[in-house]
Fold each of these.
Amino acid sequence: MTSPRFPEGALIGVLTTQPLDRVLDYRAPPGGCAAGDHVEVPFGPRKVTGVVWGAGAGDYDPAKVKSAIRVLDIPAMRAPMREFLGRVADYTLTPMPAMLRLATRAPGLTDPPGMRKIFRRGHGQPGRMTPARARVLDLLEEHDGMGFMLGELADLAGVGSSVVKGLVASGAVAEEEAPRDVPYPSLDPEMPGKALTGDQAMAAARLREGIKAGRYGTTLLKGVTGSGKTEVYLEAVAACLAAGRQALVLLPEIALTAEFLTRVEARFGAKPAEWHSGVTTTERRRCWKMVAESGAQLVVGARSALFLPFADLGLIVVDEEHDTSYKQEDGVLYNARDMAVLRASLEKAQVVLASATPSLESWVNVQAGKYARVDLESRFGPAVMPEMRAIDMRGEEVPSGSWISPSLKGAVRERLERGEQSLLFLNRRGYAPLTLCRACGHQIGCKHCDARMVEHRFLKRLMCHQCGETAPMPETCPNCEVTGKLAAVGPGVERITEEAQALFPDARVTVLSSDLFGSARALKARILEIAEGAADIVVGTQLVAKGHNFPKLTLVGVIDSDLGLQGSDLRAAERTFQLMRQVAGRAGRAEARGTALLQSFQPEHPVIRAILSGDEEGFWAAEAAARRAAGVPPYGRMAGIVISSPDMQAAFDLGNRLARLDAPLRRIGAQLFGPAPAPIARVRGRHRVRLLVKAEKTAPLQAALAEWAAQLRLPANLRLAIDIDPQSFL
Ligand SMILES: [Zn+2]
Ligand SMILES: [Zn+2]
């Protein structure tokens, strides 16, 4: 597709990142420009950047239309990318300037190319070590050879730039001239991959076929943990690179990136480009530009990598496609899995959705024939899926303040005697979810939210899991001022750790919870130690369910299998099923067959029974039928509307006015529920009121929502967020 060219002085429409609801008219700069070009334009007294979106509308006084200043020396935004941004904006009801911000989120795009000074770890040692110098050196070590700009390094280490310069003088930090934005080392798709088993080879062949066809297609790659999904989709990456196109692999968690990069290096001889919040700004800029200039063949990243300016994208892999972290819950509310499918369809690219426990949405799309499906049945190596059993907690004698049943205790003891590892799983961070005053019954809550403060005993703090507020653990009840009566109620992983250590004083007990590690790197290091046998009993949150390998682990004990079954979330059953399967899949990955024991007070619950029987297809069919009957996603459509304000009454008033103005929604046959207080009715000091819209699958929901919301002008301190296909119902 060639973009129309505009000669100097021609009227052009420029989309900027300024919060305006329209594309602005300018005149083409000297030398002319083309649709998609990044340009610098005058905006009031300032200069801002934007993208030429097409011909100008011409509805402005021609005498007042200013000329664009220049075309930036970066590759133009391709037509499929412009269409992608427009379609995501329409789908998520996001203003275009916000979409453009998402697509140009790299620093220094307006800078001229050339040389720049960068700073890395040098060979020398500082004459005298100070805390400030140590911070700089630790940071450089942590980023493993990566170069930083001076200001960036000083900022991240929290020191003045003179500290860095002092380190340069001693040779502890090296200052180098480096060309900006060099291409990434080239990956060799011809290098031999790991030997594949029969069904892995078959699965890889099917994915390669899709790539070779050079057209759009989505494949669900389903395989139990350890079945070799990664090896298989790396074959699709190899085929894509061999065809001269670019590939993108999305991972749900930064902590998984390091291990994945190592696998890519082993397979293709070099590391790929990285894009996530842990990457330095210098590297982000390099990644953005190289992706646009075909200087990066493969990008591994978080969901926002979907908005990188690929020159020729041939494959998107969404690993752990069911993972809830693919849904962006702040700013532009999009689901990266669904938007990956949209982008691939515009780029004539293939999508691989990999999971051991697919989302119901993907399962339904396979049933409907929209997605292909490839199954990996056998496990990589001799191990098989663990044996799963419930422990009926109604028949167990568990003293109050304890949560590990005698049956589970016995199973852990057996593992200890055999020198094997056990995992005790509880999806609750901290020590106790509730701190209660035994004198007056007061529950300690967050000052800013309607959430309870969670005790984190290891950090010696109370913490709000909604807003992150922390406070020291009080001695005295803040309500009745009686001392010594505050009691922890219910278990978190820290408390289970304490219980396990008391039950097995000679065992090495460790806890894996994201809040206990300062950095992704520290967490990763600890996971490796545990995998190599540094602990006998691991107590962990859902963090352990996410793709980490523990070869010595043969027992998984789920402390509270019923935890996810309560609550009003329509995906509660699906989430519980997925999480339990993933956690159980941690057991017995090497030689020994593992066991998973699920403590439950309702072992006859259909979800628990489905988990135990391992009848996945049966579970999905039953869950799909229930959703179809209720007309909820994926068989119906939903949108969540959250109104927030420092003033509760103002939020409710707006909600009620919106509810009365529901004609645009009624016209499409949609139902409106609410306003009601959101499940967590106050977050960060803002009161939250929620409305829920439910419509048939084919109803033009976005258009109706846009018309509906446009009827009201929002007062200054009220916010309204529309979430299409809400995942969480907070
Ligand atoms: Zn009290
Ligand atoms: Zn809070």
Amino acid sequence: MAQPPFDLPIRPRRLRLNARLRGSLAEVRLSRSDLIVPVFVREGRGVRQEVASMPDVYQMSVDVAADWLEKLAEHGLNAFLVFGVLDVNRKDAAGSAALDGDNIVCRLLRQSKARKLPMIGITDLCFCEYTSHGHCGILTADGSTVDNDATVQRLLQQALNHARAGADLVAPSGMMDGAVAALRAGLDQNQFTDVGILSYSVKYASAFYGPFRDAAQSAPQFGDRRSYQMDPARGIREALHEAQLDIQQGADLVMVKPAGPYLDVLAELRRHLNVPLVAYQVSGEYAMLEAAARQGWLDRDAAVLESLLAIKRAGADLIISYFAPLVANLLPR
Ligand SMILES: [Zn+2]
């Protein structure tokens, strides 16, 4: 090669020389309105209990959770996703507490409406937090797996309770076939045509859910969830099939879960689908970053922002993340 000044007209580095140039040319930006914050509510008053495997994530009673969400709204967060955490002695094989119209999830929704909380209220629809066996619905007679159709009927009852309590979106997470169609029809018949459905359409049987099961006390007491959640070894065709089925059945938004290890799936869905995509940065993704940061092995803030930017770049419109409160403070106002 010739000595400088040699002939090199194309120099991509020119556009990276300073922060102003880089900022102007960013193709993907993260903002507070991209984020959905998960909330774990439990019985009691004044309760705020840290989850062992998820530092800085708390199970809260309804009063504490409502105060916390009010603060997050002031910091610019737009949406929350609520999970109920039940005491073991209140669980049964059918997950009956999930169908109580005055349970903790419904009470938090009513509180947030009473306080005129400026946030979108989303509820997780599933039974694993409520069943004594920890599976996502009623079991078949032989106990080998979840009974799909019986569970779907109960999901509708759960959704109607949430809609009555003020949910803006319901989010079926159990990977039951036909759930979205049943929910859409049932909500419409009960005059809840404006309550939307965010379907956990593409949800893998993932090892990265471990810490969540601490947080929600929802670990399966036997076996695993591979007979309903998706096999990580299956590719984009199954993901597309699942998402398209849910869209045909009336899903307003579809989700990929987990997010970080499945960016390829997210990107492919983005290319093929026209509904908003949501990605769930799950508890294991949170715990890994948090653990490394606590050891001093990673710069937490930088790594968190990069992980979320990557999920957005892959195609997510909205991201559910336990880091949402941290990020609300990190992003420029
Ligand atoms: Zn479940």
